Amino acid sequence: MTRMREKFATQMDAALLADLRELAKAEGRQIQALVDEAVAGLIEQRRQSRARPHVMTAYQASHARFAPLYEKLAR
Fold it and tell me: Residue 29 CB: number of other CB atoms within 10 A?
């Protein structure tokens, strides 16, 4: 399955871009492929670091009910 591609422009630190070009050359890959991989990895990492909504709901309910106990335990 071929995904639709869309062009966009951005800027990058010159040294970082030079490193990216070297890495692409060393791996025999296109810069585009490395950028896709890096961005996909960043997005996945950020998604996993967020608490799921049902977990946050349970935490908030627990905190509302046991806040005084949590404060005592923290001391």
Answer: 12
pLDDT-above-90 percentage for the chain: 55
Q: How far apart are CA 30 and CA 44, in angstroms?
A: 22
Query: What DSSP string describes 40-69?
Result: HHHHHHHHHHSPPHHHHHHHHHHHHHHHHH
Q: What is the largest CA-CA distance in the chain?
A: 59
For residue 32, give the amino acid letter: Q
**C-alpha radius of gyration, the chain, whole number:** 22
pTM: 0.62
